[in-house]
Design goal:
Blueprint: E1 2-9, H1 13-22, E2 28-35, H2 38-47, E3 52-57, H3 63-74, E4 81-85, H4 90-98, E5 103-106, H5 112-152, H6 157-191, H7 196-209, H8 215-246, E6 255-258, H9 259-276, E7 280-284, E8 289-292, H10 294-310, E9 317-324, E10 329-336, H11 343-348, E11 358-359, E12 365-366, H12 369-380, E13 385-390, E14 394-402, H13 405-416
Helix pairs in contact: 2-3, 5-6, 5-8, 7-8, 7-9, 9-10, 10-12
C-alpha cells in the first residue's frame, strides 16, 4: 500500500474530515498533520518530512495561504504545495502560483478524484526523485573512485585508458539520467495546469450568469462542469500513462474510430474557453475514420487547440480542418489567426534541446512541452506533425494519422463500383 504524509495548513475540522474521507478505501495510507497557524505550518515544513502540503485558502483571507507559500519558498522547502480555494479566481490562482504553489484550484470538498490523483502522482514523483537521488549519489561516488584510480595509474597507460573509458561511460549515464529527470518533471508541471483551463472556464460562466439562469439551466451547467471535471481526471490518467510511455511501459493500443468524435469532445470542453476570450472555434471538411490510439489522439488535439486559444487574440478564429494526404493518410490542421512566430522559432518548437518559452495574448505562460508531447504521441501512432507560421499571420499545426480499416474498405468498394 502506498503511503503519504501530508501537512494541512489552515481550514478547520470540516476540511480535515473531508480530506480524510476522500482517501478512505483508495489504497493510499494518508498520515494527515493539521496546522491551523501559519507559523506552525512553516515550522512543521522545515523540521519534518512531508510528501505534500495542502493549504486551505479563504477568499476574504488570502494572506494566510500566501504567507505559507512564500515562507516555504524562502526556506527552501522542496515539496509540492497545493492550494485549495473556496472560489474560482484567476487572480488568486496567479498570486498563489507566483508565491511558490505547484497548483491552485477551487475545492468545495467534492473534487475527491482530482485530489486523490494529485496525491498519487506526488507519491510516484517523490519515489522517482528518491531513486534518482540515490542513483546520482552512486554515480558520483563511482566517478570519485574512477578519479582516484586514474591518479594512482598515471604510470600505467593501459589501465589509465580503461579507467578513462569507465569514467566517460559513468558521466554519460549521469547526464542521461539528469536529462530524463528534468524532462519528466517539466512536463508534469506544464500538463497539470493546462487541463484546468476548461474547468475554470465553465465555472466562470456559471459565476457570471448565475442570477439570470433558471434552475434547469443551472442544472445543465452543473452537468457540464461535472463532465469537464471527469475529462480533467482522464487527462491526469493520460499524463501518468505518458510518463510510463517514456519508460517503455505502455504500448500503443490503436483501433478504428471516427476522428470527428474525438475532435468534438475537444470542442465541447474548450469551446466555452474560446468563447470567453472572444474567439470562434469551428470545423471544416469531413473527418475520416483513423486507426490509432484514441486516448493519444485526444491528447494531441486538445493540446493543439488549447495552444491556439492561448496565442490568438480576441476576435480571432481557430479552425479544425480535416482532409487527406496523397499517400492516403488522414490529415488534421489546427489553424489559428494568432500572433504567429518567426520561422527560426518554429524550427525549434519540437526540439527538446532548444529552450523555446513564449507568452500567450493574455500573458499565459507556456513552455512548448505540450508540443513535444504531441510530436511523440503522433509519431507513436505512425503519423507526422509539422508547423507553418509567420509573425502576425497565425500558425497552422498539421498532423497525419493512418486511415482506419473501415475507411480503406469503403475506398475499395468505391473503386469496384
Amino acid at each position: 500500500m502506498d503511503s503519504a504524509r501530508i501537512l494541512l495548513a489552515g481550514g478547520g475540522a470540516e476540511t480535515e474530515n473531508a480530506l480524510r474521507a476522500a482517501f478512505e478505501g483508495d489504497g493510499i495510507d494518508i498520515d494527515l498533520v493539521h496546522a491551523s497557524d501559519a507559523d506552525d505550518a512553516l515550522t512543521a515544513l522545515v523540521s519534518q518530512k512531508f510528501q505534500m502540503c495542502i493549504v486551505r485558502a479563504i477568499s476574504d483571507k488570502p494572506q494566510f495561504a500566501l504567507l505559507v507559500c512564500e515562507g516555504a519558498k524562502e526556506a527552501g522547502v522542496r515539496i509540492p504545495i497545493i492550494v485549495l480555494m473556496d472560489i474560482a479566481s484567476r487572480t488568486f490562482e496567479k498570486e498563489f502560483l507566483d508565491a511558490g504553489a505547484l497548483a491552485a484550484m477551487p475545492w468545495d470538498g467534492s473534487q475527491d478524484a482530482m485530489l486523490r490523483n494529485f496525491v498519487r502522482l506526488t507519491v510516484i514523483l517523490r519515489q522517482s526523485e528518491e531513486n534518482l537521488r540515490k542513483t546520482n549519489d552512486r554515480l558520483v561516488q563511482e566517478m570519485l573512485t574512477i578519479q582516484d584510480e586514474r591518479e594512482r595509474a598515471e604510470s600505467m597507460s593501459v589501465q589509465y585508458v580503461e579507467l578513462a573509458e569507465n569514467y566517460a561511460i559513468a558521466k554519460e549515464a549521469l547526464e542521461k539520467l539528469n536529462q530524463e529527470k528534468n524532462k519528466f518533471f517539466s512536463i508534469i508541471a506544464h500538463d497539470l495546469r493546462s487541463p484546468f483551463t476548461s474547468l475554470l472556464g465553465f465555472t466562470a460562466l456559471l459565476e457570471q450568469r448565475a442570477e439570470q439562469l433558471t434552475p434547469e439551466k443551472v442544472k445543465d451547467y452543473a452537468v457540464t462542469i461535472n463532465d469537464s471535471a471527469t475529462r480533467v481526471f482522464k487527462l491526469l490518467e493520460n499524463l501518468l500513462e505518458w510518463s510510463r510511455l517514456q519508460m517503455d511501459r505502455v504500448e500503443v493500443e490503436p483501433r478504428d474510430f471516427p476522428l470527428g468524435d474525438i475532435a468534438g469532445k475537444t470542442i465541447d470542453v474548450l469551446g466555452p474557453v474560446a468563447e470567453q476570450k472572444g474567439l470562434v472555434l469551428q470545423e471544416e471538411g469531413t473527418a475520416s475514420h483513423v486507426f490509432a490510439d484514441p486516448h493519444m489522439v485526444d491528447a494531441v488535439i486538445r493540446n493543439l487547440v488549447n495552444n491556439a486559444i492561448k496565442f490568438t487574440p480576441s476576435g480571432g478564429t481557430i479552425t479544425i480542418r480535416y482532409s487527406s494526404t496523397p499517400d492516403k493518410a488522414a490529415r488534421v490542421d489546427i489553424i489559428d489567426t494568432g500572433v504567429g512566430m518567426e520561422p527560426a522559432t518554429a524550427e525549434k518548437i519540437f526540439n527538446l534541446s532548444e529552450n523555446v518559452t513564449t507568452q500567450g495574448t493574455n500573458g499565459e505562460k507556456g513552455t512548448g512541452l505540450g508540443l513535444l508531447l504531441c510530436k511523440e504521441l503522433v509519431e507513436r501512432n505512425g503519423g507526422t506533425i509539422s508547423i507553418a507560421s509567420a509573425p502576425g499571420e497565425g500558425s497552422t499545426f498539421s498532423f497525419t494519422l493512418p486511415l482506419g480499416p473501415s475507411q480503406d474498405v469503403a475506398a475499395k468498394k468505391a473503386v469496384n463500383i
